[in-house]
Amino acid sequence: MLLTLILTTLPTLLYTTFLWWLDRYEKEPWPLLLAVFVWGAVPAVALALIAEVQNADAILGTPREASIWLAPLVEEPLKALALIGVFLFFRYEFDNMLDGIIYGALIGFGFAMTENALYFYREGSALSSLLWLRVVIFGFNHAFYTSIVGVALGLIRYNQQRWAGWIALPGALFLAIAFHAMHNIASSYAFPGVLIAWLISSGGVLIVVLIAIITWRKEQSWIDHELLEEVQVGFIDPGIYNTVRSSRRRVQSQWGALLHGGWRSLHTMRALHHHLTELAFLKYQLRIGDCHCRPSDLQPLRQRILEGMVDDQH
Fold this sequence. Notes:
This protein is mostly helical. The chain has helices spanning 2-22, 30-41, 43-60, 63-89, 97-122, 127-137, 141-155, 162-187, 190-232, 238-244, 247-287, 298-313. The longest helix is centred in the last third of the chain and has 43 residues, at 190-232.
């Protein structure tokens, strides 16, 4: 059990660290990230196991067939539930496709961690081959499937047409199920199938990463344009503006704050960068007429930024 715990948690920590790095400009709140991860790791797995055990023989016949066909039909909607919940009830924390990727992938990593632990504990004699396949070669699979739904939700985040959601969300869920099923079918045919399954999943992960990079550039353009106005009216200093618009300079600034002022100074600097990014995003959302944002939110946010700049000077 100890070995199983190590072999499932360490790769998960590595993959989630990559995910944390992927979210460069506006980090998502830890409580919400933890909540979606736990959903993937515990309730989604438990409900999937119950549904698959109860329906495998009745619907599909043999357990092997159930593994190929039933698992995607059950698991992908269950994982997507938490993602849809974030989109509906925490819309102010769901800004674009990158946020959809972050939340969706985190749900997938939680699901994969628990699922791998169950496989490793049950198949102890074949642990080395399972570890290689499930953690290394196909370690991003569940994250990829759920992030497809996240990308769709990010696409419709600012779409005022309701019909777009009714088309995009079911379409994305269908793609997630289809990719999952294709992986199961291909990987059941030994070496050639495993290679095909790897090519499919790796190609999908690469596309998701490219979408994330495109979204980075879009987020940076929001920051560049919206905060430039704040420099022009004298609200923020050009030096702060140049720091906030670059993820590299942000890290350098935060490290400098930690080395010269300690943890409190680091917290103040990170909060200032976060609030300035929120201001840029909020101004953009108001500019395009996002109905989920209010102009009255601008003044409290500006006040927190002023307080942060005063604390930074001290």
